């Protein structure tokens, strides 16, 4: 079992990233060989400020370590330090089909109405993502629900490449989506869109770096409805914001939504929101404290990333070489 997954350094780590991906990565470290990377090449598919990107890579590395990623157990590195990722992505662009990429909902969401003005990289993003996991022959890719479609595309690319070139090179990776409510945490401002780093509204998400007061305030202001909470999760259908907050409570406390509702049924959000703030702060505050300490030691962070990159370069080399050979290049 080899686990590979990444996160873009496009902003501050938020509760959705943590519950949907990072805290699950942390748990997998003891069960499998794990590689985790900062997807800084993926970050280039949207407008970036070079000075901010450079700082974000280090900040995101610190946030992952603060959340429990242990560089002694897992290989942690920046994608741009391992040229095999974009090299393999180029080879795989010969395999991926326009029609496949056209169906990707992330492309449709992020390009919006302005497809002509979107970067080419935003369109081919999932091919680089396929290379990220195929180059290590990852068996499991722990991601949030929003990335399921991209991992399925990586599987299609792996199968087509193996067939086209009559090789058994690539392993079709399994998307590994968490159960329960953590797999898709929604925005605090709109129960129909997912919590995202790139959402322009700060109030839509809770950051790992938010103080206790800011967490409580964002949850107090979170969009809700005036109805009291029901006693059965099925009765939350049609109430996306209420459903999301109950889901967040379940995910941060480790309860089921049914158990959460047993505690709060009949009560309104005036009672629920402060309890949710307490539970969220209990989860995040210790991680935030560690992050603040780690920021003081950039040399240590750079050292961890350099050591991780060295290992990743070595692990990726044979697969990249075989891919070149399969298509008739190199010997
Ligand atoms: P961006 O808006 O820049 O795409 P993002 O918040 O979507 O940022 P990514 O770096 O794209 O974050 O994704 C990192 C990981 O977090 C992925 O595994 C993704 O599936 C997961 N993830 C992102 N948002 C959520 C969410 N709202 N709920 C659960 N998991 C999420
Ligand atoms: Mg994303």
TrEMBL record:
- State its location(s): Cytoplasm
Q: Which residues form a coiled coil?
A: none
Cross-referenced Pfam families: tRNA-synt_1b
Molecular-function annotations in GO: ATP binding; tryptophan-tRNA ligase activity
Name the top EC class: ligase
Q: Which reaction does it catalyse?
A: tRNA(Trp) + L-tryptophan + ATP = L-tryptophyl-tRNA(Trp) + AMP + diphosphate + H(+)
| Positions that bind L-tryptophan | 132
Per UniProt, the short sequence motif 'KMSKS' region occupies residue numbers: 194-198
One Gene Ontology cellular component term attached to this UniProt record is: cytosol
Record flagged with keyword Cytoplasm: yes
Q: Does the keyword Transmembrane helix apply?
A: no
**EC annotation?**
6.1.1.2
Listed A to Z, the keywords are: Aminoacyl-tRNA synthetase, ATP-binding, Cytoplasm, Ligase, Nucleotide-binding, Protein biosynthesis
One BP annotation, GO: tryptophanyl-tRNA aminoacylation
Motif 'HIGH' region: list the residue ranges.
9-17
- The entry marks the following residues as binding ATP, namely 8-10, 16-17, 144-146, 185, 194-198
Summary of subunit composition and partner proteins: Homodimer.
Q: What does this protein do?
A: Catalyzes the attachment of tryptophan to tRNA(Trp).
Q: Which PANTHER family match?
A: TRYPTOPHAN--TRNA LIGASE, MITOCHONDRIAL
Return the similarity comment: Belongs to the class-I aminoacyl-tRNA synthetase family.
Q: What is this protein called?
A: Tryptophan--tRNA ligase
Q: Which gene encodes it?
A: trpS
């Amino acid at each position: 079992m080899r686990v590979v997954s990444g996160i873009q350094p496009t902003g501050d780590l938020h509760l959705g990233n943590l519950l949907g991906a990072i805290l699950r990565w942390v748990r997998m470290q003891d069960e499998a060989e794990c590689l985790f990377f900062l997807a800084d090449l993926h970050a280039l598919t949207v407008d970036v400020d070079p000075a901010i990107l450079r700082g974000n890579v280090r900040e995101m590395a610190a946030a992952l370590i603060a959340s429990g990623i242990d560089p002694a157990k897992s290989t942690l590195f920046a994608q741009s330090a391992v040229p095999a990722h974009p090299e393999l992505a180029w080879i795989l662009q010969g395999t991926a089909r326009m029609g496949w990429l056209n169906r990707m909902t992330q492309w449709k969401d992020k390009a919006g109405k302005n497809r002509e003005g979107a970067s080419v990289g935003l369109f081919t993003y999932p091919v680089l993502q396929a290379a990220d996991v195929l180059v290590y022959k990852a068996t499991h890719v722990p991601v949030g629900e929003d990335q399921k479609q991209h991992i399925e595309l990586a599987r299609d690319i792996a199968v087509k490449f193996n067939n086209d070139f009559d090789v058994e090179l690539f392993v079709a990776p399994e998307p590994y989506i968490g159960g329960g409510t953590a797999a898709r945490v929604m925005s605090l401002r709109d129960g129909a869109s997912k919590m995202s780093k790139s959402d322009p509204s700060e109030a839509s998400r809770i950051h790992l770096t938010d103080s206790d007061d800011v967490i409580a305030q964002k949850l107090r202001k979170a969009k809700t409805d005036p109805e009291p909470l029901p006693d059965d999760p099925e009765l939350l259908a049609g109430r996306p914001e209420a459903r999301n907050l109950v889901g967040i409570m379940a995910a941060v406390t480790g309860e089921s939504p049914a158990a959460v509702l047993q505690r709060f049924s009949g009560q309104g959000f005036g009672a629920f929101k402060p309890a949710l703030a307490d539970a969220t702060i209990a989860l995040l505050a210790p991680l935030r404290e560690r992050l603040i300490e780690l920021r003081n030691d950039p040399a240590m962070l750079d050292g961890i990333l350099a050591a991780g990159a060295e290992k990743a370069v070595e692990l990726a080399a044979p697969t990249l070489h075989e891919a070149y050979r399969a298509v008739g290049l190199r010997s």
